[in-house]
Amino acid sequence: MLMDHQQRTKEMIKEIDRALMKYVERGKHEKLIKAMRHYPEAGGKRMRPVMAMLVAEAVGKRGKEALPFGCSLELIHNFTLVHDDVIDKDPVRRGRPAVHIAFDEPTAIIAGDALFAIAYDVLAMTDVDGERLRRLLRAVSDTVFLVAEGQQMDVDNEDRPTVSKEEYLDMVEKKTAVLFACAAEGGAIIGHGTEKQITDMKEYARLLGIGFQIWDDVLGIKGDAKKVGKPIGSDIRNGKRTLIVLDALERLEKDQRKHVLTDALGNEKATDEQVRAAIKLLEDIGSIENARQFALDYAKRAKDLLSCLKDSEEKEMLREMVDYAVGREL
Amino acid sequence: MLMDHQQRTKEMIKEIDRALMKYVERGKHEKLIKAMRHYPEAGGKRMRPVMAMLVAEAVGKRGKEALPFGCSLELIHNFTLVHDDVIDKDPVRRGRPAVHIAFDEPTAIIAGDALFAIAYDVLAMTDVDGERLRRLLRAVSDTVFLVAEGQQMDVDNEDRPTVSKEEYLDMVEKKTAVLFACAAEGGAIIGHGTEKQITDMKEYARLLGIGFQIWDDVLGIKGDAKKVGKPIGSDIRNGKRTLIVLDALERLEKDQRKHVLTDALGNEKATDEQVRAAIKLLEDIGSIENARQFALDYAKRAKDLLSCLKDSEEKEMLREMVDYAVGREL
Fold it and tell me: Quick check: A124 and B144 CB within 8 A?
């Protein structure tokens, strides 16, 4: 990324952070406010609001006007994280105790609901005409419903012996990609973009979102432990069924090496040696490279859609965002 | 209630039920759909949508136009019930297993979130101009935030040795009254009412909502077991700190009869005789009559506000709704 783009992104994030902190400082209940603030104040890349603002600027020089909408999506993103952590019983998030650990489960459920309510209140502040507001409202609500569906699929998949690659990708689309898609779609609506721009930008972000998650799966296996922020191989020991693992299980169906993977997969007591052997097998049979190529293909298709925009600094930044989503930290 | 009013209410409820069932039949995930449908299909008095429609009709002959908005509030009401039951670990609701029992806790949390998302999607269907839609969106979001705050107060109060009557009423306002207030306010907005009508109808419903809850507390102590649907005295054995109990604890501060109440309060093993003695004490010191008068006063003030409406059948029905909220089944 160009240095001045990096600097500009940093400044956007600062502006978004300030707005977010103002929005969650709401009501009279100290504990509830603290619980709502817990994740947003722990930082984050704010990819969704940054994307919404860049798109609105690129299509119609209305980046500023997309700030509340972008924050609304960030609040929704945070609300889903709070509830997901309760559901998955994850004790840690962004290096801090999860909300349900730092407070308690009832407070986490309520804080999530409250963040969701605030998100819609912030959405209502958007400086657009009423019919565009109605369209944004529908887009956001449809999106959150799909995110809920994706989360339910994720919960149910844990009890199933096998999951197909198609089912996994459907879940990734709902849990991750649709919120990105909504950010870019909304940005284009707020920027008074053409119907083609609205459609193309939504698809751009959907592809980016899927690529982002698959790249995350690759990082979970191959990334630098320090940069990724969790010990390499933990995805193997946790038995996380990523695209890589699902692909490998298919390829190894009748292969006598299969046990090298299954011995380590979901085995919290697996030795480092066993985990390394499993990763080597994933490499040897091409499952890691397959996922990598899959993500890169999505990234390329996402970039192609940027042709609906006139050349601008923001267009460049949206291109760089794809490179960050698919390509980071490996 | 007049017979034809009863009939008309029944028909409104049927129409609301049909719409609700259509709205929750959403997405591809069977289990999630069933979980979302679980409470709405178990029936209910649909007081919030009925109120919204009556108000919209009374101010501007736009009752039909308030149907989606009313359903949106009913979905929100149901979403809060689903999450409340998870939080309070209540196993039964409307005579059926609670969602988190019939399914599981993760599904209950997700189904609540999904109902909330659908509620906003339904709101977006409202046939009003964009600026009125924006106003409805803000009213609904503000309301849900207050409901969350009320629920958090309720959770926190359980760990506190004492709660004042003022704190209890503040909680009742947030947990119950604000959603009624939003129903009437929204109905008046959708009906193109004057600012005075919007303000007065909101206040009418807020007063009705508080009266409704206090009357519920009276029924919990004095009501006919069959009609109320739970054994009389269960509020005493569960140690529920209602206005009646809080008032009594204040009055009995230095009274040697205090133990008659505290022996039974929150004591699941209290004998029927002990519970009867406690109820008799609540009567003797006037705490029950005090709550009754309190609710009746709120009811009177609610009815007075109806003077902002021209005479109509709907205005009569809104008056009867107060009599139902404060006066039912004793």
Answer: no
Query: Any residues with CB less than 8 A from the CB of A2 and at least 6 apart, and which?
Result: A316, A320
Any residues with CB less than 8 A from the CB of B170 and at least 6 apart, and which? B153
Out of A147-161, A163-177, B149-163, B214-228, which region has the weakest mean confidence (pLDDT)? B214-228
Successive 10-residue mean pLDDT values, chain B, 330 residues:
85 97 96 97 95 98 98 98 95 92 97 98 97 97 98 91 93 97 98 98 98 94 67 81 94 94 92 93 96 97 98 98 89
The domain in which residue A132 lies consists of 3-325
**Parallel, antiparallel or unpaired: strands B92-93 and A96-97:** unpaired
Q: What distance in Å separates the CA atoms of residue B128 and residue A158, rounded to the nearest whole number?
A: 44
Q: Is A296 on the interface with B (CB under 8 A)?
A: no
CB spacing of A110 vs B155 below 8 angstroms: yes
Does A143 reside within a domain? yes
User: Domain for residue A286, yes or no?
Assistant: yes
CA distance A185 to chain B (A): 17
* pTM of the shown model: 0.94
B226 assigned to some structural domain: yes
Within an 8 Å CB–CB cutoff, is residue A156 touching chain B? Answer: yes
pLDDT at B233: 77
* pLDDT digits 0-9 by tens, A281-300: 999 999 999 999 999 999 99
Question: Residue A132: its chain B contacts at CB < 8 A?
Answer: 130
Question: What 3-state class would DSSP assign to B152?
Answer: helix
CA dihedral B51, B57, B63, B65 (to 10 degrees): -120
Joined together, the tokens standing for residue B116 give: 């909330």
E strand or H helix at A260, and its extent? helix A258-264
* Euclidean distance between CA atoms B223 and B322, whole angstroms: 18
Cα separation values, B51 from A50, A100, B7, B74, Å: 42, 37, 15, 11
Angstroms from A156 CA to nearest CA on chain B:
9
**Structural domain includes residue A28:** yes
For testing contact with chain B, the best of A25, A86, A105, A134 (most B CBs within 10 A) = A134
Question: What is the ipTM metric for this complex?
Answer: 0.94
Residue in B124, B130, B148 nearest the CB of A110: B148
d(CA B324, CA B124): 31
Q: Which of B34, B118, B137, B153 to mutate to test the interface with A (most CBs of A within 10 A)?
A: B137
3-state secondary structure B95-113: CEECHHHHCCHHHHHHHHH
Which residues are CB-neighbours of B271 under 8 A, at least 6 positions away? none
Q: Residue A36 pLDDT > 80, yes or no?
A: yes
Q: How many domains would you assign to chain A?
A: 1
pLDDT at A2: 63
Confidence of residue A220 (pLDDT cuts 50, 70, 90): confident
Q: What is the CATH number of the domain that holds B107?
A: 1.10.600.10
Instruction: Look up residue B101 and give its two tokens.
Output: 């029992």
pLDDT > 60? residue A70? yes
User: In chain A, positions 5-44, which contact chain B (CB-CB < 8 Å)?
Assistant: 26-29, 31-32
Instruction: Kindly state the tokens that stand for A73.
Output: 């999506």
